[in-house]
Input
Amino acid sequence: MKIGIIGAGQLGRMLALAGYPLGLRFVFLDKTPEAPGGQVGQIIEGEFDDPAALARLAELTDVVTFDVENVPEAAVREIAEKVQFLPPVGALATAQDRLSEKRTFSALHIPTPRFLPVATREALELAVTQLGFPSVLKTRRMGYDGRGQRFLKGPEDVDDSWEALGRMPMILEAFVEFDTELSIIGVRRPSGDIRFYPLAENIHEEGILSYTRAPYVDGPLQDTAERYSRRLMEHLDYAGVLTIEFFVEGDQLLANEIAPRVHNSGHWTIEGAVTSQFENHIRAILDLPLGETRCNGHSAMVNLLGEMPELTDVLSLAGAHVHDYGKEPRPNRKLGHCTLVAPDSDERDRALSRLLELAGRSLR
Amino acid sequence: MKIGIIGAGQLGRMLALAGYPLGLRFVFLDKTPEAPGGQVGQIIEGEFDDPAALARLAELTDVVTFDVENVPEAAVREIAEKVQFLPPVGALATAQDRLSEKRTFSALHIPTPRFLPVATREALELAVTQLGFPSVLKTRRMGYDGRGQRFLKGPEDVDDSWEALGRMPMILEAFVEFDTELSIIGVRRPSGDIRFYPLAENIHEEGILSYTRAPYVDGPLQDTAERYSRRLMEHLDYAGVLTIEFFVEGDQLLANEIAPRVHNSGHWTIEGAVTSQFENHIRAILDLPLGETRCNGHSAMVNLLGEMPELTDVLSLAGAHVHDYGKEPRPNRKLGHCTLVAPDSDERDRALSRLLELAGRSLR
Output
């Protein structure tokens, strides 16, 4: 059986590496044959909305999935008529637009930071008077890794931010003084079975995920997160892996955003869980029995940004595994990640602290 | 960095899948582009002893290793002059010849079943009078999965066996009424570091490995096996993964044979250990720090022979992972394997029993 993946980034690459053992083959659509996925599978060269390339992908494969969210919805609707496309287009469309994402949370009674749609400069003026400062102005579309958003400290930031973000449809959100950030990764088969990984704690720097620790052991928060995720997956008639990122404020979870795909905060599952998020995504879109999500000890994942540290140094750390995506170095670019697995959280944190040093950062 | 692999069978395929995360690329030499490894990496078509193909492999890669033992020694010596070749040629040569293998065990004081070289029909006559019956007659070369050997119950079997095995140089071994069979997988870096996986217990049927369970928990036997393996690896100035298969007779380990490569009885390490034998082989031949060999719970590995069971049935078992090598079905052919990982050995054995049923066999 052949799986098509729109986007041959590191997520697509890791999906293929998780799927080969199941006897599957992979075809990617991406702009360049040297993309991370192209190094481990067949590639069709083209833009994500190139009709001919999408048609070719549909023709060659049995199921199509994606490793990027910024695939034009219209292009996807077309391919979904020719071949099975999962996760469902509706879920992708919801995740592509911060406003519809937040409205979906609200409709499903999933708490979220207060927000207001901002279609015009006047609407922005009104919104800041309602939500106050500090607040965060975000474009509705094409935001990721801290891009497409501005922090508004006070009235003096409003004009600049409106201009800098391109005067397009936006959303204003109340700033949350969060204690920490958590994510829940769930996976659902079309036939309805659902499994969850334990919560992961995520530390961002300059809008980019720096490191993740899992499991984040908190029974009540785990239950709450699973309840929200289940509600969302059932509402979207979801198939595949879905991630929700939360702010934690006291004993409250506030949903920040969703990713209708495998997620950077779940990379630790390759070594740190019985079944990885990548394998479970593949199993889910093929409607195969889902794999166990139990942890193997305590894990940390550190993104390797901008340049790769010396392999020898990193692999010397206890329980370390390196994932090099085969990309050209560029400042702040995600070139790879390193996972640490340890029998307890203290040992994990000691190794994590050393690893962050090797990556030129430090434990927070 | 590019790794060359002579042989693109399932072992080569799993080596490549373990090496991609380290940012490596793989080139295989094999007779057919549809070999299991050819489905996940570049392939050079040719016989294992084709000088032009071997030269091309050396040219394209930085280090060359192998996934089959039956590579002609002369061909390997030639390639080893052009590119780094590991494990060392001497270890491969020793493993290719049952007589030199057994003599190496003896020289290193590693107990082994009694054996005698049998160069002629007359020598065979003499050998059976010395070792008695039952005994096992084996060709010195090209034996694997039960091939190239005959069980001699009594004098009446001698003639037939000599003829059937092709009247070539052989070895006669005293038959061991063993309690069970164990294997130890060790890995050594050129710089000398060594790690061992816990002993695995192996059940063969008709000479082919049926299933493996690990860890086989026995402190004294583990120590003994590690001592023997260390002695052998140091003697061979070894780099890579090396497997020794033992018969267990009371509290004695009798070395049966070695494999200078990753081994079927170590497939469980992909999910069942912190670092798989495949990743550790790659780390070792690149002289990188070795990964931890600690177990994730209790594992079993079942070979899927002749035809693949229904994926849905197998994946329904708790802690199951399927590895389909992408081969055409053929009676008794190793088409794939399934690993089970469980928190304790009872749960593992319950799942194993059901898995063996699905594979048309039963727990022994």
